[in-house]
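Researcher: Final request for today, and then I'll write up notes for the group meeting. The sequence and the SMILES for S-adenosylmethionine follow.
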Amino acid sequence: MSAASALSSRRPERAMEFAFSASDHRAIADMIYAESGILLPESKAKLIYGRLARRLRACGLSSFPAYLARIEHDAAERAHAVDALTTNHTSFFRENHHFEHVRDTLWPGFARRLAGGGRVRIWSAACSSGEEPYSLMMTLAGQDVRAAQTLATQDFRLLATDLSPSVIATARSGRYSPDTTRAMPAAMRRTWCRRVGEQDELHPSLRAPIAFRELNLLRGWPMKRPFDAIFCRNVMIYFDEPTKARLLSRFADQLVEGGTLYIGHAERIPPEVADRFRCTGRTVFEKVR
Ligand SMILES: C[S@@+](CC[C@H](N)C(=O)[O-])C[C@H]1O[C@@H](n2cnc3c(N)ncnc32)[C@H](O)[C@@H]1O
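Model: Predicted protein-S-adenosylmethionine complex:
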């Protein structure tokens, strides 16, 4: 089924405001693939239309070809389009078994190293709006604000990156709707959230050790030194096999020997890089070379 017919066959009550042809779909899918590695097959035509129609309106344009011509030369609008087309679904303590694994398996050794003046680095790659790195911080500190404050004085850093500027801005703000913070265990929520107006603000000590940065996983990485653990969850599902294999090989290069990689529940290590990781738990891998 073509993109246009896929759209019209599921057309809701309202007529489409802009025509959206199969070739418009292909041009947008090619652009987002080149920019981010994300695959948007024809089955996603409705999603593309819904998310970009808003951009057409914001730009005062009346057709997809006109919008495509615009993003060809307008890098800022292209960034808006990429931002609009990313799927940023996340939640506090999502796939909680990973946080339990950090707490029970990695943290005792890390805590000893930090207490002895050593260094620990963790990377939350594709962190979306920040729930993942903040869940990690809460896991490490438990319900103890002083433990989080101590971490901020030690050689501990948590790098949290995402392609999308809008989600990184939310992550940096440390403010979430009460609907979002409800996913935290109640005791954690009581310890770490303070109601400010309509929102819950996370305690500043959770935010202090985290560096939030915009970073495209497909481009160069400025980090020189390796990480003890990398979280890269629920983004590789949007990539094709060669992109996954290249990315995982780079993660292996970026981990210390014996470092830990966490991936999403629907993700796998492709055969091309299988010799670089050893499975040590549910979607948990150790770098072996
Ligand atoms: C579904 S969210 C996953 C968030 C979190 N890791 C989790 O598991 O809850 C996927 C994130 O990947 C980001 N993303 C997509 N392509 C990316 C790329 N090439 N580089 C960096 N981030 C990317 C999106 O912006 C989105 O925020």
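Model: The two ends are 45 Å apart (CA to CA). The chain has two domains: 3-85, 96-287.
Researcher: Thanks, that's everything.
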